[in-house]
Design a protein that fits this description.
Number of domains of chain C: 1
CATH topology of the largest domain in chain B: Rossmann fold
Largest interface: A-C, 49 and 39 residues
CATH architecture of the largest domain in chain B: 3-Layer(aba) Sandwich
CATH architecture of chain C: Orthogonal Bundle
Distance between the termini of chain C: 47 Å
Main location (chain A): membrane
Largest sheet of chain C: none
Radius of gyration of chain C: 21 Å
Structural class of chain C: mainly alpha
Family (chain A): Belongs to the binding-protein-dependent transport system permease family.
Strand content of chain B: 15-25%
Structural class of chain B: alpha/beta
Oligomer: heterotrimer
Number of helices of chain B: 13
CATH class of the largest domain in chain B: Alpha Beta
Protein name (chain A): ABC transporter permease subunit
Radius of gyration of chain B: 25 Å
Chains: A mainly alpha (229), B alpha/beta (363), C mainly alpha (229)
Helix content of chain B: 25-40%
Largest sheet of chain B: 6 strands, mixed
Number of strands of chain C: 0
CATH superfamily of the largest domain in chain B: P-loop containing nucleotide triphosphate hydrolases
GO biological process, one term (chain A): transmembrane transport
Membrane topology (chain A): Multi-pass membrane protein
CATH class of chain C: Mainly Alpha
Strand content of chain C: under 5%
Shape of chain C: elongated
Number of helices of chain C: 10
Distance between the termini of chain B: 34 Å
Order of helices and strands of chain B: EEEHEEHEHHHHEHEHEEHHHEEEEHEEH
Chain lengths: 229, 363, 229
């Protein structure tokens, strides 16, 4: 039986199709919710590091450390740290939120550093209070740098979710363990393909979102750089 | 022989013409400045001399030989090259940066280091800088190291691509003076690119003004370019006050220096109804005492009106006019080479000299 | 929970034999180092070529992103079904996943070399190879090694996941512990994996510090000072 016959047979089963749709939906939830939560957390922590330079070193060390912990290890220790059940999907959400935040803290700090001091000074001079200045001036200007980090985090999350299948919560990852146990290529290939497509679609959406959020960048883009003499 | 551009054209694949049929002869032992707005092809022209850019058509002769006949890397080792931001190698010490070309050319390591140390002195840097890394130097120091590195091969030709554009104005002026001093000792053939017309007229023996699209607009001495721009483009490029700046090239031997009443700082001057120049014990001007001012006891410097710029006898007449215009007494103070006041000039006298000068005003 | 972990670590049976900590750590380390060497041999030359010539940069970044999106578990189970040998499947999977960070680091490192420095090197008559080895590579080294560090973190994590297809190493504790619900063993596996990752990262950080030329470090420090000033 060729691979394509096998694939056709696999996809013709309504049960299998239902499983694919269900796991895909779960995969989106498990990857994207932590992405959003992680971004918020990273911005909060970044703001802390930006306004309180002493915290900066600690923040960077901790985020590096979190990022160093292997995903499977984090998945299995989180229940004991926060008291959830081993098979609860919250574990994956918490772990991936931490990864996302750990990955984004440095870009947030770098992006905030890159905001021209003159802009901050003029905002202050016009009477912005620090919190409002941060939300309406510094943060928007940090979006272009931040966006690059968010795209990496989204791809990484989408690919990591499937590791959760080893602790029973894994979105499309369940198709991999399924295929492995039944020595069956089709679910694995379908799982890989859908993961890649999902990563691509989310990436495109993020690119669009970045364009919408930073209209000034687009306005600046068409102006051709001076031709070097 | 020098460097000869023969019908050089550079077209890029997208159709932009960077240099358009350039014919130019650069004389040995001179500083030739290529100047123009961005997009005029000045850097492209410079980079064609050491084959960093290959022309689309035409040929360049160096000492009478077509540069395409020599291997590009070997050609470059024989031509000094200085660029904006210096482009120093951050992972190498200052000395080994300077020794780059000698080592590439297979010199013995000790000989190369010795040469590098000599050059450090030539460009006016203390010996201890040699062990430092570029990141530990100021912008001006980095640029000096860049010049030293270009001199290391002892090549007769030096290409300088906006070498001083990235440093602040005060440092830039110092570096320019330094370059002129070096050139008076070394007599290299220097091709210098800048977008700054002031820098061009200050440094250049000859100035080539290029227009956007890579066409040569005018090629001549700085005085010619300032006084007789060939067209509106050159006139516009050299700027509005070109008449005034042209005075930089006019000697002022004919200006009559008049005597002026002086008072010595520390003495007890009597009242007077004219302007009096205050000088110190060495005869150097310190400021002015206004007409009718009465001094109680000894004259101290705090009581003086600040003087204007000083004009050193024998330098171009621009300085004399400026000295007269900037003086509170409308009298420009003339000093000798030691800085001692020898008299004053008025703006009227300076203008008379200019008007009567055979090359005086732009006609 | 903590009691279980202490019990596990203090049980001398867990420190001996085929399933003992020393063996498992060495196995894990072996997979990581073997795949790191293979991935480096493949990725560094490609990264140097693309970075030096500037040809194929878009293709390199694009394919790197696609591989990054590949789900680890899917790749490893797929390869296992293909080769029916856990060692071969796991090593190939690990190599595939380690290539993008090394490639990206090498390429980005060369890209980040100040253009004026490369220009000066060329203008002084350095040939292509001299420029690459004497100028570009030493200056790019911090970023190249940063890519290697990322790859190592990824390898430690992925080697644990690859235990699912029957590979040895520290992942065994995680998965075998999960299978028999021995949380002490699971947590011990997680701690050991995380520790291994952190220790390897520290070792590489030290190597990085030793290999990066002093002038490059000074330049980096200078740039950072300017940003924070």
């Amino acid at each position: 039986m060729s691979f394509f016959d096998e694939l056709g047979q696999y996809l013709s089963s309504a049960n299998n199709r239902e499983q694919i749709v269900d796991t895909l939906a779960e995969h989106c939830y498990l990857a994207l919710l932590p992405l959003v939560l992680g971004i918020v957390l990273a911005i909060l922590v970044g703001w802390l590091g930006n306004t309180w330079p002493r915290a900066r070193g600690v923040i960077l060390v901790v985020s590096n450390l979190v990022y160093t912990v292997p995903s499977l290890a984090l998945f299995v220790v989180i229940p004991s740290l926060i008291g959830t059940k081993m098979l609860d999907s919250i574990n994956v959400v918490v772990a991936l939120t931490l990864y996302t935040a750990a990955l984004l803290v440095r870009p947030v700090l770098d992006a905030l550093d890159a905001v021209p001091p003159a802009v901050i000074a003029s905002a202050t001079a016009m009477g912005y209070r620090p919190a409002r200045r941060f939300l309406t001036v510094e943060l928007p200007l940090a979006v272009p740098v931040l966006a690059a980090g968010v795209r990496v985090a989204s791809v990484s999350n989408i690919s990591l979710v499937s590791v959760g299948a080893l602790i029973g919560v894994g979105g499309l990852g369940v198709l991999f363990t399924d295929g492995f146990q039944r020595e069956y290529f089709s679910p694995i290939v379908v799982g890989i393909a859908l993961t890649l497509v999902l990563a691509l679609v989310v990436d495109l959406l993020l690119v669009l979102l970045r364009r919408v959020l930073t209209p000034w960048d687009r306005a600046a883009a068409p102006v051709k750089e001076e031709v070097p003499a | 022989m020098g460097i000869e551009f023969r019908g050089i054209t550079k077209k890029y694949p997208d159709g932009t013409v960077a240099v358009d049929d350039l014919n130019l002869t650069i004389e040995d032992g001179t500083i030739t400045v290529l100047v123009g707005p961005s997009g005029c092809g000045k850097t492209t022209s410079l980079r064609m001399i050491n084959r960093m850019v290959e022309p689309t058509s035409g040929s360049i002769l160096l000492e009478g030989e077509d540069i395409r006949d020599s291997d590009a890397a070997l050609l470059r080792r024989g031509i000094g090259y200085v660029i904006q931001h210096a482009g120093l190698f951050p992972h190498r010490t200052v000395l080994s940066n300077i020794a780059t070309v000698p080592l590439l050319s297979g010199w013995d390591k000790n000989k190369a280091k010795k040469r590098a140390a000599e050059l450090l002195e030539v460009v006016g840097l203390p010996a201890e800088v040699g062990k430092r890394y570029p990141a530990q130097l100021s912008g001006g120091q980095q640029q000096r190291v860049g010049v030293a590195r270009a001199l290391a091969a002892d090549s007769p030709v030096l290409l300088m691509d906006e070498p001083f554009s990235a440093v602040d104005p005060v440092v830039r002026e110092g570096l320019q003076d330094e370059l002129l001093r070096l050139q008076s000792q070394l007599g290299k053939t220097i091709v210098f690119v800048t977008h700054d017309i002031d820098e061009a007229v200050r440094l250049g023996d000859r100035v080539a003004v290029l227009r956007v699209g890579g066409k040569l607009a005018q090629y001549g001495t700085p005085a010619e370019v300032l006084r007789q721009p060939v067209d509106d483009f050159v006139a516009g490029f050299v700027g509005k006050d070109r008449g005034y700046r042209g005075l930089s090239f006019l000697a002022a031997d004919d200006v009559l220096v008049e005597d002026v009443p002086t008072v010595r700082v520390g003495s007890k001057p009597e009242g007077s109804d004219g302007w009096r120049l205050a000088v110190n014990d060495a005869g150097e001007p310190r400021g002015w005492l206004a007409p009718g001012s009465v001094v109680d006891g000894e004259l101290v410097e705090g009581e003086l009106l600040a003087g204007g710029s000083l004009y050193q006898q024998g330098t171009p007449i621009r300085g004399a006019l400026d000295a007269a215009l900037s003086s509170p007494a409308s009298l420009g103070v003339v000093v000798d080479a030691d800085g001692k006041a020898i008299g004053v000039v008025t703006a009227r006298q300076v203008l008379d000299v200019i008007e009567n000068h055979p090359e005086g005003v732009a006609r | 929970m903590i009691g279980e972990i202490i019990d596990w670590f203090t049980n001398s049976a867990n420190w001996q034999g085929e399933d003992g900590v020393p063996t498992r750590v060495l196995q894990h380390l072996g997979y990581v180092l073997l795949s790191l060497v293979i991935a480096t041999v493949i990725a560094v030359p490609i990264g140097l070529y693309v970075g030096h010539t500037g040809r194929g940069g878009v293709l390199l970044v694009g394919s790197g992103n696609v591989i990054r999106a590949l789900p680890t578990l899917g790749l490893v189970t797929f390869l296992f079904l293909l080769f029916t040998d856990s060692d071969i499947a796991a090593i190939i999977g690990l190599v595939v996943l380690a290539i993008p960070p090394i490639l990206a680091g090498t390429y980005a490192g060369l890209q980040a070399v100040d253009r004026s420095v490369v220009d000066a090197a060329e203008g002084m008559g350095m040939r292509g190879g001299q420029r690459l080895w004497q100028i570009e590579v030493p200056i790019a080294l911090p970023i190249v090694l940063g890519g290697v560090r990322n790859a190592v973190l990824q390898l430690v994590a992925t080697a644990a996941v690859a235990a699912y297809v029957g590979l040895g190493g520290l992942g065994r504790y995680l998965l075998d512990g999960l299978a028999i619900l021995d949380y002490g063993e699971v947590a011990a596996g997680a701690i050991l994996t995380a520790l291994l990752a952190i220790v390897l990262d520290l070792v590489l950080a030290t190597v990085q510090r030793a290999l990066v030329p002093r002038g490059v470090r000074l330049a980096e420090a200078g740039a950072k000072k300017e940003v924070s000033a």
